Amino acid sequence: MRKFLYILTAIVIIAILGIALLSFVPSYLSTVNNPDVVEITVPEGAPLSYVSDILFDKGVIRSRIWFRYKAKEAQIDQKIKPGTYLIPSDSTFEDIFTLLEKGVADKYTVLTIPEGFTLYQIAQKMEELGFGTKEEFIEATEKYFNDNYNFDTEGLYFKLEGYLYPETYHFTKNQTVDDIIHQLAQAMNDAFTEEYTKREETLGFSRHEVLTIASLIEREARHDGERTTISGVIHNRLKKDMPLQIDATVIYGVGEGREHRTTIYQSELDKPGPFNTYTKKGLPPGPIASPGKESIKAALYPDKHNYLYYVLSPEEDRHVFNETYDEHLKDRAKYINRNKE
Length: 341
Description:
Blueprint: H1 2-29, E1 38-42, H2 48-57, H3 64-73, E2 83-87, H4 93-102, E3 108-112, H5 119-128, H6 134-148, E4 168-172, H7 177-191, H8 194-203, H9 207-220, H10 227-239, H11 247-254, H12 266-270, H13 293-300, E5 309-313, E6 318-322, H14 325-335
Antiparallel strand pairs: 1-2, 3-4, 5-6
Helix pairs in contact: 2-3, 5-6, 6-7, 9-10, 9-13, 10-13
């Protein structure tokens, strides 16, 4: 009798597991897997097997067999049209089927935001691409901030400065500015993995402070190899309560986030302001540009060293780092040729 009960219990458990799998697996296999927009090209006369193979190879779908099964079930296998398609990260199988059946109708506009772009530069780019005026874009970012964020904005020229991720995006003319801002802001949010969030807590920095440090690194570094070294200098100076003395912050403040120059005058370095890290200790009120993934990583994982100073060597297109002020003065005299008023 006991043996019978064991067998019956095992059968019930297997049945429950089977039902759970039957309800979970189809949903799982029907979910797209690409975190970013994926471009695929379907040649004339390409069969369903070709489409499923390319979608699988590009990381969009989890199973070729399941995709073919669902496509045949939807009777798409005989309606596939050739063309180059962009598959958004939030697509469903039904969305992909609709694209393949409809063909390429909508033309996509490519928005490329370089690392280190300011919000104002992004707004200008949006205007150039025909998505309204730069003023409308800026106004929309202010509204998006009010609806989604809650941090101190005193001293900021643009509330979402540094929160729009630099990347290449594909948009249709039917998409609203609000939709675009959401995608740019969400991409920056997605850049912060669970590991990065824990690292913020370990360092004792807020997201706003991390993005601020990352933006300074983005504007200062000449190449990837020195990002973590510059980050180490920033962290060292913050710990010692020293002014950061970063020219890029002063330039940003003088232009109020709208004008970008490569030169700076001594009189501007001496004039106090929220973004003047020569006259004010600590971090500026917020980011001065949109940092890329390498600068964000560098902000969270600075090199451990004793450097407190660096100066640009134009001939070598790199920075020279020093531990002492005397060493820095020697290199500064060698490399700096600052305009003066």
